[in-house]
Amino acid sequence: MGSIHYENNNNNNIHITNPLDPEEFRNQAYKVVDFIADYYKNIEQFPVLSQVHPGYLRKTLTQQSAPDDPECLESILRDVDRFVVPGISHWQSPNFFAYFPSSSSSAGLLGEMLSTGFNVVGFNWVSSPAATELEMLVVDWFGEMLKLPKSFLFSGGGGSGGGGVLQGTTCEAILSTLVAARDQKLKVIGRDMFSKLVVYGSDQTHMSLQKAAQVAGFGEENFRVIKTTKSDSFGLSPTSLKMAIQSDIEKGFVPLYLCATIGTTSTNAVDPLDSLCEIAQQNGIWVHVDAAYAGSVCICPEFRHFLDGVEKANSFSLNAHKWFFTAPDCCCLWLKDPSALRNSLSVNPSYLKNKATDSGEVVDYKDWQITLSRRFRAMKLWVVMKSYGVANLRMFLRSHVKMAKLFEELVGRDERFEVVVPRNFGLVCFRLSFSEIDKSNAMNLKLLERINKSGKAYMTHTMVAGMYLIRFSVGGTMTEERHVVSAWKLVQELADEIYLM
Ligand code: PLP
Fold first, then answer.
1. Which residue among 91, 209, 262, 319 is best mutated to probe the pocket of ligand 1, counting the most ligand atoms within 8 A of its Cβ?
2. Which residues contact 408 (CB under 8 A, 6 or more apart)?
3. Which of 59, 312, 355, 474 qualifies as a cystine partner to 277, CB 3.0-4.6 A?
């Protein structure tokens, strides 16, 4: 056993013999927890969007290589404060309205601490049974909260065979389901038909689909980006999908995979799932539903209708690390037929052979994902669900939507602005509207630059149908109505300046 593990005398002479001493860890961890709690307490003091310039860190750090001698935690935390914090864009600030949220919570952080504390690598059941079994439990709990069809759940019964897995990100979920769909199809039509397979999405589908297609070996000629229109609120039109499929079939292509989105990244458009799935089913297409952001709010009964039709899809995913109070990474993926995934992703070297796997009674999650090693993500999701309970989780999500609605109303009252697409969830897309589109885009770009340069709020933009829009996304755990009202006042003040120019 180590004797003196971490000694810091006044000469700063530290002697370490054991990098994991429980008592030392206890002392140090309290200090880090204090540091984080103070960070959250003071978070509003910082400019939301970091104002540093590229390369700032190398330029400001005096220490240019890894130290030969150990440093004490106090000194490390001083460096974090001095050098790292200025380069952080504060995603947990209540004035963060950019991208989509990455909502922290006490339970999420504590769950993360437990997960990292155990530090198990549960790639198969035997490597840490609780990691696998807790994951199977939480994906079922989440699926039940979302009222997913039983065919997606482990507890579905009747030999449904469905189930879920916690992957890192939606990019991984889409890639792994695309590979599963590809191999399932090629098994039927022959591997030499690979060059004929076609993947479908819309011009609003997240770039995850394109990346997945590229990684899985699909060329541009096998990737269809179907155009959406403002009149369809940028949702994928079933008629357009049908036409694209027909045209492909006539040319000898084989429709393979459709990624439908509930809550697109640009404007939160919702693809009409039920009709798209009907068309896909008629053409033997695997449908993956990407609800990375908006999926979480569908635990509220009044939002559940956005998922209608999911029962006809093959797979469904959402990011708990976006809007479910859980730190990254935590993408929940459910499948009706996980055997398709396992057939593509299962590799069984002799060094991983074990009795539990041979018994066929266990889930080995290494076969449900691309990587072998995996984090104990279920722990944080479980702690979040248990700490808050479904009623509170719904209440938190509804409060964000309510604040977005308030912002939408404020925008609507100022005739210089327009809300460009109907708001579905916690995202408001708005802009200063001028009759001339180029002028409108230039002015909105200028407005957004000024908002973010102020450091008082952070918003991001998107381009749809040639329009430059500002996205105001509410979902920060610490955001209150007063932050939303202040952000709007800031937008109005900066718009006044732009009008005076
Ligand atoms: N899909 C949608 C609709 C998204 O909004 C995002 C990210 O914002 C993603 C996919 C990508 O998620 P990830 O970073 O987990 O791959």
1. 319
2. 419, 423, 428, 430
3. 312
CB 145 within 8 A of CB 389: no
469 alpha carbon – ligand 1 mean position (Å): 19
* Sheet hosting strand 427-432, strand order edge to edge: 417-419, 427-432, 467-473, 460-464
471 lines ligand 1 (CB under 6 A): no
Tens digit of each residue's pLDDT (9 = 90 or more) over 262-273: 999 999 999 999
Cα–Cα dist 357/335, whole Å: 21
**Terminal Cα distance for the chain, rounded:** 71
Q: Determine the number of helices (DSSP H) and then strands (DSSP E) in the chain.
A: 15, 13
Scan for tokens 């006042």, then name that residue.
Answer: 489
Residue type, 22: P
* Model confidence, pTM: 0.95
206 CB under 6 A from ligand 1? Answer: yes
Please write the tens of the pLDDT for every residue from 285-320. Answer: 999 999 999 999 999 999 999 999 999 999 999 999
Taking Cα atoms as reference points, which of 314, 290, 299 lies closest to residue 185?
Answer: 314
Confirm or reject: Cβ of 210 under 6 Å from ligand 1: no
Neighbours of 141 (CB within 10 A): 18
Pocket test for ligand 1, best of 211, 293, 425, 429 (most atoms within 8 A of CB): 293
Helices (H), 81-169: 106-118, 129-145
Angle (deg, nearest 10), helices 437-453 and 481-500: 130
Q: Are 211 and 405 in contact (CB under 8 A)?
A: no
C-alpha angle with apex 203: 200 to 206, nearest 5 degrees?
Answer: 80
